[in-house]
Amino acid sequence: MLKESKITVLENFYGIDYVLFGKDLARVESCCPLLKEDYLSIKGAMLSVYVEMLKLMNHEPPKLNEFVDKSGLKSRARNSARIAREYAERLVKSTKSRHNIKESLKEALEENPNANVSTLVEDTIRQKAWSLAIDSLLVAKALNEAVEVSNMNTWEGTLLEDSYKILRDNLIEAAWQILDSQNLDEIDLQKIKGMGGRARKVGWRTAGASARAAKELAAKPKMNLATKMKRAAKVGQASMKRAAKVGHGKMKRAAVKAHKIGNTKIF
Description:
The protein is an all-alpha fold. The chain has one domain (3-263). 71% of the residues lie in helices and 0% in strands. It is built from 9 helices and no strands. Helix 2 runs parallel beside helix 8 and helix 8 (195-218) runs antiparallel to helix 9.
């Protein structure tokens, strides 16, 4: 990877925190260190997949002539996160996004008819906005700076994209737990014990499965493309099923109140 690409990854390491929390993770209050450990593990796994995506796309960002220290990285990260959040907030209120959110809410209500409507509407909208903001921060900018974007349409690119989305959603769930942790009582804390190990294993296994599968299959020139795609699909599906188990019921946080979408506080 180019030096500039490595700096991009480091910048986004901090930028993700600014997108989700509006500040450094170290400044975010939480009831227990376990939640932050889970968050950092999943974020590391997602960024490892992101690095593979940058390599596949042949990422070539603009040259940097000046030295960038930690303070500079954080300054750049804050600015990028601010832009990503503003973009996501506009996009989530668009007609298309409102329709998609409404459909997701209807499906979730069917699964959990007794859900608290107001709370679940806000949760669903925030989930969508955070996803859009992270995608804007990491993927949108990378695509604009990539030389071979079409490589993401290959079977290897599809595997990496699927793994990225799974880890992104798990990361959002982990951030959510950190923000909600101040309201947890002792019983709630006992319930989340043990989730950290499972989340870490799922994150690293998902990222590793995609990278290993792509490299191993690419090293078999005699295997035809159809067979490669079938094997790659099996790896991706298995990873997605494992990650889904760690979701902690996140997709059940939904309800139908479409008129509230425009007035919901997102960040």
